[in-house]
Design a protein that fits this description.
Elements (H helix, E strand, L loop, with lengths): L1 H31 L5 H22 L10 E7 L4 H20 L3 E9 L5 E9 L3 H5 L4 E8 L8 E12 L14 E6 L7 H5 L3 E9 L5 E8 L5 H31 L11 E6 L5 E4 L5 E2 L2 H5 L4 H11 L1
Parallel strand pairs: 4-9
Antiparallel strand pairs: 1-3, 1-5, 2-3, 4-5, 6-7, 7-8, 9-10, 10-11
Helix pairs in contact: 1-2
Length: about 325
């Protein structure tokens, strides 16, 4: 049904373009007869160009996982309160972006900072091509600003990492040995009623095992969203399998890149983007060179041009 709905959406978008084309031809005929509909004609042409570009861009998202939902995890770097505040700013930016693009966001894990910001957070973002778009955000994000936590108003540089994985479904089989998984229980924080802080409903799963390349890996997933421990364990297991799947996917990509040595890939852990609030305003992506001085719009979730620039350069 998902595949069928995906194909239907392509047909619907194509039909919309064709309808726009018919309108343009009709306006041309009316103009040929002497009536002035130049403004209407130009509006239709502008819209047709934009919609064709959008469809061409979406056509580049042709990897098997691009249509999947996404797990997005944010972790602050070293720097204490300053980095934790920066992590929360990114958290707000991605929730705004998801909302603006009609996607549903669920908070699976959220650990507030001791003074401000967050120690970590994991979002489940559901929507058409959620992972396809958000995979462009994988990496380290750097902030330069006058720190609101510094009484001397000095300039600080902070880092936070963003880690995006595709959310697997029943079409992907990931078998993990139960003996390799450790389960930890903890008191969930935040909303959820009186039961949350009295009972250990939060679940953390830790898998330690070998990947297909023989490397031993430790993968952690935790969930505190649901009211019951059983539900949180089920959700955490999906997250765990999704992250192991992503590790295996990266192994295959590395093998492919060795064969295509001329094609450079940005690896997880690299600094991908800088957000400068002082001494000037600029957000710049170091992979593509795309930049903007409209910092406020970016922090409000307007990151589509950065995503598009990266995906087009990657393609």
């Amino acid at each position: 049904m998902q595949d069928l709905n995906h194909e239907k959406s392509w047909v619907a978008q194509w039909d919309k373009l064709d309808e726009r084309r018919q309108n343009i031809l009709l306006f041309r005929e009316i103009m040929a007869e002497g009536d002035d509909v130049t403004d209407e004609f130009n509006d239709e042409v502008t819209l047709l160009k934009k919609e064709v570009e959008d469809l061409e861009f979406k056509n580049m998202l042709d990897e098997p996982d691009d249509r999947r939902d996404a797990l997005l995890t944010i972790n602050p770097g070293a720097g204490g309160t300053e980095s934790q505040d920066w992590a929360e700013m990114l958290y707000r930016m991605y929730t705004r972006w998801a909302s603006d693009n009609g996607m549903d966001t669920t908070v699976l894990e959220y650990q507030p900072g001791d003074v401000a910001g967050i120690k970590s957070a994991t979002l489940e973002i559901k929507g058409n091509f959620a992972y396809g778009y958000l995979k462009a955000e994988n990496g380290v994000h750097r902030l330069v600003r006058i720190s609101p936590f510094d009484s001397n108003a000095r300039r600080h540089t902070s880092f936070s990492s963003v880690f995006v994985t595709p959310l697997i479904d029943d079409t992907i089989q990931i078998e993990l040995n139960p003996d390799d998984i450790e389960m930890q229980r903890f008191h969930a924080g935040g909303k959820g009623g009186q039961n949350v802080n009295k009972v250990e409903t939060g679940v953390r799963l830790i898998w330690t095992g070998k990947l297909s390349n023989g490397k031993e890996e430790r993968v952690v997933a935790e969930c505190q969203q649901e009211r019951s421990q059983l539900q949180n364990r089920e959700k955490a297991m999906v997250m765990l399998k999704s992250r192991v799947y992503d590790h295996e996917k990266r192994i295959k990509e590395e093998q492919k890149n060795k064969l295509e040595s001329s094609k450079m890939k940005n690896e997880w852990g690299s600094q991908i983007r800088s957000y400068v609030f002082h001494p000037y305003n600029m957000v710049k992506d170091h992979r593509t060179g795309y930049e903007t001085s409209n910092v406020d719009a970016v922090m409000d979730g307007d990151i589509d041009e950065f995503i598009k620039a990266y995906l087009m350069s990657d393609a």
